[in-house]
């Protein structure tokens, strides 16, 4: 089976990109080992601090952030690190060619109940600074800490999936993920219905109406509450993920973060033939104004995302 270094050699001749991806993969393998033992080590609780988002930091949020930072500090290609867990961007090396934006442990509120969580990361060219559109990404990826530990990566070609072997190697298990254009599965937190705008409500009601409704087919609903878990399902079998702008999140611009959640996931999903939007524009075309900026996130099977865009286009 192809391993990560062989895949990287085939996908890019840029040693900086290959080096940073290798470092993030190593950080992911280290975090996976920590998570497997966390309940025994008593590390699933709170860290007693809050992050810039005002969210209570879990001990493992801080530990995961430190692991990522340690691996990146050892890598001369990295110029700046933007992390969900750090208020300000961290200067790593003035000679670095690559900016890394990361959510070191997304979905950590699920750790206490042993649900899949992940590390999400985005690579940007250093010369443009951290506030570049997602379309400028050099690469993106995530590590999903689930029944298997998966590393999903895309540079400029296919979105590929690796599985962490017992010997510590990342082995290629899906060479080119392909998000089915059509799907009968949507992922949204339906407890927020009272906050939804008309397009979101319209799309969900059409879907729930099933075979006799405008969509003309039956839908199922899945919501893990861990973005990496929901997106990995969509990458593997299709579906649509929605965390739309709603009346409660509007003042903040949305719930999920642009630089280290929306952009990398949009890069990966679009690389697999899926589609992404804020409802009003493609996620990768959003011009960031801040490193912790939030945006509405709708992405997945192209036909489903297009139906949501059509609802927004009706105004
Ligand atoms: P809600 C986890 O906190 C997260 O950032 C994403 O991983 C997940 O998709 C979302 O929030 C869940 O949000 O409102 O359903 O708890």
Q: What is the global morphology?
A: globular
Overall number of strands:
17
Q: Percentage of helical residues? A: 25-40%
Which small-molecule ligands are present, each listed once?
6-O-phosphono-alpha-D-fructofuranose
Tell me the major beta sheet: 8 strands, mixed
**Overall CATH class of the largest domain:** Alpha Beta
Averaged pLDDT, please?
96
CATH evolutionary superfamily of the largest domain: Fructose-1,6-Bisphosphatase, subunit A, domain 1
Low-confidence stretches: none
Strand content: 15-25%
Which topology of the largest domain does CATH recognise? Fructose-1,6-Bisphosphatase, Chain A, domain 1
EC number: 3.1.3.11
Keywords: Carbohydrate metabolism, Cytoplasm, Hydrolase, Magnesium, Metal-binding
Pfam families: FBPase (PF00316), FBPase_C (PF18913)
Subunit structure: Homotetramer.
Molecular structure report:
The radius of gyration is 19 Å and the shape is globular. It has an eight-stranded mixed sheet, with helices on both faces. Strands 12-11-13-17-15 form a five-stranded mixed sheet, sandwiched between helices. The protein has a two-stranded antiparallel ribbon with strand order 1-2. With 315 residues, the protein is α+β, with helices and mostly antiparallel strands. It has two domains: 4-174, Fructose-1,6-Bisphosphatase, Chain A, domain 1; 185-313, D-Maltodextrin-Binding Protein, domain 2, CATH 3.40.190.80. It has helices at 4-11, 15-41, 59-73, 198-208, 227-237, 258-271, 302-313; strands spanning 46-50, 56-58, 78-83, 90-91, 98-106, 117-125, 139-145, 149-154, 160-164, 170-174, 185-187, 220-221, 240-243, 256-257, 275-277, 294-295, 297-300. Helix 2 packs antiparallel against helix 3, helix 4 (198-208) crosses helix 7 and helix 5 runs parallel beside helix 6. Strand 7 (139-145) and strand 8 (149-154) form a beta hairpin. The model has no long low-confidence stretch (mean pLDDT 96). 31% of the residues lie in helices and 24% in strands. The chain contains seven helices and 17 strands.
């Amino acid at each position: 089976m192809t391993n990560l270094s062989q895949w990287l050699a085939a996908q890019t001749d840029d040693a900086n990109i290959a080096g940073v991806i290798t470092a993030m993969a190593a950080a992911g393998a280290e975090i996976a080992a920590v998570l497997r033992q966390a309940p025994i080590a008593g590390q699933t609780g709170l860290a007693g601090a809050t992050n810039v988002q005002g969210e209570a930091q879990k001990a493992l949020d801080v530990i995961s952030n430190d692991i990522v930072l340690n691996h990146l500090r050892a890598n001369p290609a990295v110029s700046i690190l933007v992390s969900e867990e750090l208020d300000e961007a961290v200067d790593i090396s003035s000679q670095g060619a690559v900016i890394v934006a990361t959510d070191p442990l997304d979905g950590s509120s699920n750790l206490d109940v042993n649900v899949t969580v992940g590390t999400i990361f985005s690579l940007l060219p250093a010369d443009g600074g951290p506030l570049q559109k997602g379309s400028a990404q050099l690469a993106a990826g995530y590590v999903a800490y689930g029944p298997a530990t998966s590393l999903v990566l895309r540079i400029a070609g296919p979105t590929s999936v690796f599985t962490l072997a017992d010997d510590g190697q990342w082995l290629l298990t899906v060479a080119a993920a392909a998000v089915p254009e059509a799907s009968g599965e949507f992922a949204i937190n339906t407890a927020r219905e009272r906050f939804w705008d008309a397009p979101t409500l319209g799309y969900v009601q059409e879907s729930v109406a099933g075979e006799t409704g405008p969509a003309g087919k039956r839908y199922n609903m899945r919501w893990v509450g861990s973005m990496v878990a929901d997106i990995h399902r969509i990458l593997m079998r299709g579906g649509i993920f929605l965390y739309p702008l709603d009346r409660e999140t509007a003042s903040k611009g949305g719930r999920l973060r642009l630089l280290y959640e929306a952009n990398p996931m949009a890069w990966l999903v679009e690389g697999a033939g899926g589609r992404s939007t804020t409802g009003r524009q493609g996620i990768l075309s959003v011009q960031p104004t801040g490193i912790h900026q939030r945006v509405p996130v709708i992405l997945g099977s192209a036909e489903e995302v297009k139906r949501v865009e059509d609802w927004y286009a009706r105004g």
